[in-house]
Amino acid sequence: MIKAALIGAGRRGIFAYASYALKRPDEIQFIAVAEPNEERRSLLAREHGIPPEMQFTSWQELLDRPQLCDVVLICTQDREHYEPAMKALERGYHILLEKPMSPNPLETIRLAEEAERRNRIMTVCHVSRYDTYYSTLKQLLDAKVIGKVMTVQWTENVGFWHHSHSFVRGNWRNSDETSPMILQKSCHDMDMLQWLIGGNCVEVSSFGKLSYFKPENAPAGSTERCTDGCAVEHECPFSAIKHYYNEKDSGFPMAVCLTPTLEARLKAIKEGPYGRCVFRCDNNVVDHQVVNLIFNNEVTVAFTMTAFSTENTRTFKIMGTEGEIKGHHENNEIEINYFSGKKEIIRPERYEGGHGGADYLTMRDFVRQVASKDLAGKTSAAVSARSHLIAFAAEHSRITGRTIQLNEYIQELKRGERHASQA
Fold this sequence. Notes:
Elements: E1 2-7, H1 11-23, E2 28-34, H2 38-48, E3 55-56, H3 59-63, E4 71-74, H4 82-91, E5 94-97, H5 105-117, E6 122-124, H6 132-142, E7 149-157, H7 160-169, H8 181-184, H9 187-197, E8 201-209, H10 240-244, H11 252-256, H12 262-271, E9 288-295, E10 300-306, E11 313-320, E12 323-328, E13 333-338, E14 343-346, H13 358-372, H14 381-400, E15 404-405, H15 406-422
Parallel strand pairs: 1-2, 1-4, 2-3, 4-5, 5-6, 7-10
Antiparallel strand pairs: 7-11, 8-9, 8-15, 9-10, 11-12, 12-13, 13-14
Domain Gfo/Idh/MocA-like oxidoreductase C-terminal: 138-373
Family: Belongs to the Gfo/Idh/MocA family.
Organism: Paenibacillus cremeus
């Protein structure tokens, strides 16, 4: 039986990961929680029977204690990953770390190096790698069913409603407080592309802007909040009342308010961040971005991230020397078109749970990894750091307008760190 502690009892921590222990109590048990929000801390403690003396208001309180258990899950906000992760490694814990590892590229490198130095497991929550849909795609590519892969078109359709919730009103709206969009949302994509293609990215270029969710695009008659008598609220596709004023007990409404009553939801919309007009928030992350990549095996990638989609899913076309593979994740379809004229459609097995069952499978594999003392696993810190650096390089390219040589970029980062330490 693995004993665990949760640092950061947000929606992902509680419902995506810790819930695994309620389904598999013979495999893992949560015996401690650190969370500043009393409502969320108490909810996790009640569900898992955690006594008061093992409930902490901060990660510092928990990690200042001698090692309490085998593993910690770190599911705090982006800028609160690095310090608790480094402290947990020092204390001797194995770690499941929510992505991104850090919004700072050097901290990302340091985490990977420290986990290796201390012989500790640090698995990063790139949940898509655990999804049966993408693992099936990986098997097809490795089997060379379309020959040698040459070109990839990959699209992250964020969805207009998901973008407005998470990246305009929500926790990841402002890169000064969290991470750039390409890192926070699309480090999954960079990770999967690196994994699926099977080579190392060598060059990156990128363009992107925050073009729409800005004050100058606010409709006439709109107000600071959707509940302030907005003249266009009924017609607005981003209306907080439409999206959150209901009694659903999961998903995005749960992020707005844990209490699934109309009274509580209305209060949250009137007073909290999720009731703001999407054109009058303090957001600064891009709402559309493109990234071009070339790998050392000569595979080229055209990646698009966009808020302006009705669907919230990934779609792709992978082109090889003997055929092409088209994919639509939400439809659970992988379509293979061979140059011979043969066509095949595969629908992989799915598991219950978030991200097509990938949240559950991530926890299942992490528990097995800890039990077997497998330091590598599917998404080790070392592998994840490399894909994070692709995202960092893409953002650097977007800001500077330069094409980035990835290895040179990494060496520049390390030289800068050495110079800073010598100053």
